[in-house]
Amino acid sequence: MSQFEDLLTKVGAPAGEGREMREPATGAVVGYAPVHTVDDLERAIASAGAAQPAWAALGHAERSAILHRAADRVESVAEGLAELLAREQGKPLNGPGGGARAEVGATIAWIRATADTPLEPQVVRDDAQGYSTLEYRPLGVVAAIGPWNFPMMVGIWQIAPALRMGNAVIVKPSEFTPLSALALVEVMNEVLPPSVLVALSGDREVGARLSEHPAIAKVMFTGSTPTGRAIVESSSRNLARLTLELGGNDAAIVLGDVDPVAVAQGLFWGAFVNTGQTCAAIKRLYVQEDAYDGIVDALAAVAASAPMGPSLDEASMLGPLQNKKQFDIVADLIDDAKAHGRRIVTGGIPATDLGELFYPITLVADMKDGDRLVDEEQFGPALPIIKFTDVDDAVASANRLDVGLGASVWSADLDAAAQVADRLDAGTVWINSHAVPHPAVPFGGVKGSGYGLEHGVEGLKAVAAPRVVNHPPKGQ
């Protein structure tokens, strides 16, 4: 039995039972996801709450050691996890940053980095009257509600820090990619104590109950802004803490001094990693007029050299849209751009020869602010390109929408780029790169893109309760 088959046997429902999961690339049945209920959730929360105090009592050093063993175990079945992820999510096995193997590798790296991130008590006052320390303690039971685009990597962004800080975790994966998340949790649970990490594959009723449950101390959610707002409302009933990584429509500003060929690869994969199905990908490209034609041509050349195809084909670097709903959103926005006479540079027509959910890389030039493809998040393989003359106008365009997850500035003059970056309303701004996260670097949005930080020391603090202890003067 292959690793993939073994994982599917462990986490999937029997054939013909549960919810049928199909491969986006081929339409073939991957397996059957169990359908957990609110009653299952209640039992899971009770078990997690009972197991959490002993997990917290182990201390940071022992929890970190266990997380390292969990990372080792995940690494031992990395190829099986990658195959399951590719089949269920649709992303190719390979591809810069967004392939299934890369996602599993990042998942392993994030577990280890989270385990190794120090968080010592901080002395915030020390004077003749005494000293005060700020320390961080477990919250209790944390809810981790994950997305379908990176179900393992983004899932571990929630899971690993919560566990490291001594919490128990209830995972609610997306209904589009439950098997991937269930498999990751199953593997980690071969090392973790029972019930400190539980994954439930349920419907929206389970998710809604999870976010309002009185025993949930923290909700971590990655997904759409409307769903995030609903979680804010429901969590008011139990005053659960929140980390919300919501929708984005990241702008990239390219100054006229760039070498178009030199930056084309970075711009292309900054936009189309995971076939554009990435929260903090470039989704609006503003190019200064001196570089405009060169950038359009260079991006078209990169698009022609990036093969799109079946997820398990080793040559594929780009895959299908994950689901029909997202495919329809992308197709509708491109059709709207065509109806308004915008210039289709590449793509523009569904790739039905590859499969029902394939849409080729579509570069649309001569776009304007106010066009739907500019103003609405496409979350797929379409990129609007907008020409500008004055940098002030580009900054105003980038900032005008009620989103602020990421942004980037591209220039041969790093000082000029930094000055522009300082004016952008986004939680993360990259210079001469985009959508490149790091486990030590905090990440989070502003405005309609949510609030709260993940990764690094700040990510650990976000899943813990701060406590101040006031001490008498030293020596007394």
From TrEMBL:
Pfam families: Aldedh. Keywords: Oxidoreductase. It comes from the Bacteria. InterPro entries: Ald_DH/histidinol_DH, Ald_DH_C, Ald_DH_CS_CYS, Ald_DH_CS_GLU, Ald_DH_N, Aldehyde_DH_dom, LUC3-like. Residues 19-465 form the Aldehyde dehydrogenase domain. Residues 1-21 are annotated as: Disordered. The active site is at E245. PROSITE patterns: ALDEHYDE_DEHYDR_CYS (PS00070), ALDEHYDE_DEHYDR_GLU (PS00687). GO terms for molecular function: oxidoreductase activity, acting on the aldehyde or oxo group of donors, NAD or NADP as acceptor. Belongs to the aldehyde dehydrogenase family. This is Aldehyde dehydrogenase. It comes from Rhodococcus oxybenzonivorans. The lineage of its organism: Bacteria, Bacillati, Actinomycetota, Actinomycetes, Mycobacteriales.
